[in-house]
Every structure is written in C-alpha cells, then in structure tokens.
Amino acid sequence: MTTTTSIDITTSTTTSTTVTSTTTAPMKDNFIPAPNRAIDPSKPMIALTFDDGPTGKNTLTILDLLTASGGRATFFNIGNSVEANSAAAKAIVAQGSQIAGHSWTHSDLTGLSSAEILSEMTRTRDVIKKVTGIDITMFRPPYGSSNANLLAVAKQVNEAAINWSIDSNDWNGASVDQIYNNIINNANKNGAIVLCHENQANTPEAMKKVIPELAKTYQLVTVEELLYYSTKTISAGTLYNNK
Ligand SMILES: [Zn+2]
C-alpha cells in the first residue's frame, strides 16, 4: 500500500499467487494529459464517476453540466450499452471526459472464470474502441466486487480497477437532496472518487446542484487525471480506491 502526502489516494494490490508476473505495466505512460487542459496539481481535485451507461439523454445532460462548470468526469460504460447508445459514448469523448469499462453484462465478475472475465473485458474494450477510437485504461468492477483472479485478468488487458471513496447512494433510491447531501457533506478532502449512476432517475437533477457546488472548491477531473497528478505508479491490475 502506498499513500501520497498531498492527495488521499490509497492503492491496494493483490498478493495472491494467481498473479504470476512481478512487473507492472506503466499505465502512467499510456496517459497523456489533454492539450489545453489547465489543471493545477496544488489545488483540490475530485473525480465524479458515472456508471451503467451510456444511457443517451442522461449522458448528454451530465456532459452539458460538466462543460458549463469547466469540469470532466469518468463514465464507466457497460459494453452492450455502448452499442445501443453509440452517439452518447462519442459525446463523452468529445466533451473531454474519460470513457472506461464496466463489463459487458454487468455480472459480478468474481463469480466468473478467468476466461469469462476476459471475454467480458475484451468485448467491452473492443466496442469502445470501435465506437470512439479510445483504448480504455480503466474499468470499474460491477458492484465494486473484486478479487485476485479479476485483477490478474485486468492486468492482462492493461486496465486498472477503480472503486470509490464517496457513495452518492443514487443506486439505492436516494432523493435529489439526499444525493446532493451524500456527496457535498463527504467531499471534504482532496482526491475523492465519487460513485454515481447515470441510469438513475434522480441523478441528472441532483447533478444540476452538485456539479456547480463542487466546482466552487474542486477541480472536477477524470480518474485518469486524478491518479496521474497524485501518484507516479498507476498500474494495470491494481485496484484504486480511497478506503
Ligand atoms: Zn454498475
């Protein structure tokens, strides 16, 4: 486990013997900060994340809110939804936000074989590449459910696993005000990763309040940006969170 002094991101790596390689893929080298993207590493950052899309309308609403506040976010997309909503997937990239994977079928990947996990991840990588031209570098395990076997496959496909440190609870029936409070009341430290879902009814409405409020204090960055500026060791097959 490593901890930076300026940004509270912790990393955990598996010690299972199923991970046989001791080398770590140089994820950081794969990430090139966007041109004309002004980020001040000395100022607080927060990474909003939106799972379970792209949905279409909600994706575009959230992207417009981000643009209006000069922010970006990370969208963990389900592979078969990318096929169904390819215009929204393209819009994520065009806005400057990060597109990433969230499996193909939204299964709990810890219940699958390595071959099945590889299929879930590869199909998702491939459709995002086909639709947007992007080689994704990160994924979020459905339900945040991870184990050594999953991380070994993630390493194989050169992706880091990303969980979260603040849960908006939008997936659990939270109202607009509850989503707002869950995020704002907990966003009191630098380097947080916030779990949201773009397919939940109250999330876009909550973001109309959350995004402008966060932007007063924080730079709204992608997970790639957050990790790039907070650690020098972003590695495929590693689970990043803030727990
Ligand atoms: Zn999900």
Can you tell me about this structure?
The protein has 243 residues and is an alpha/beta fold. The protein has a single domain, classed as TIM Barrel (Alpha-Beta Barrel). 37% of the residues lie in helices and 16% in strands. The chain has nine helices and ten strands. The chain has helices at residues 27-30, 57-68, 79-84, 86-95, 114-132, 148-156, 176-184, 203-215, 223-230; strands spanning 10-12, 45-53, 74-77, 98-101, 138-139, 160-162, 166-167, 192-197, 219-220, 239-241. Strands 2, 3, 4, 7, 8 and 9 form a six-stranded parallel β-sheet that branches. A four-stranded mixed β-sheet has the order 1-10-6-5, with helices on one face. Strand 5, helix 6 and strand 6 (160-162) form a beta-alpha-beta unit. The longest helix has 19 residues, at 114-132. The radius of gyration is 17 Å and the shape is globular. The model is unreliable at 1-26 (pLDDT under 50). Zinc ion is lined by residues 51-52, 102, 106, 142.
Strand content: 15-25%
Describe the largest sheet.
Answer: 6 strands, parallel
How many domains make up the 3D coordinates?
A: 1
Bound ions, cofactors and other small molecules, one mention each: zinc ion
Question: What series of H and E elements makes up the topology?
Answer: EHEHEHHEHEHEEHEHEHE
Class inferred from helices and paired strands: alpha/beta
N- and C-termini, Cα separation:
12 Å
CATH topology, by name, is: TIM Barrel
Which percent range fits the helix content? 25-40%
In round numbers, the mean pLDDT is: 88
Annotated CATH architecture: Alpha-Beta Barrel
Low-confidence runs? 1-26
Instruction: Give the CATH superfamily.
Output: Glycoside hydrolase/deacetylase
CATH class: Alpha Beta
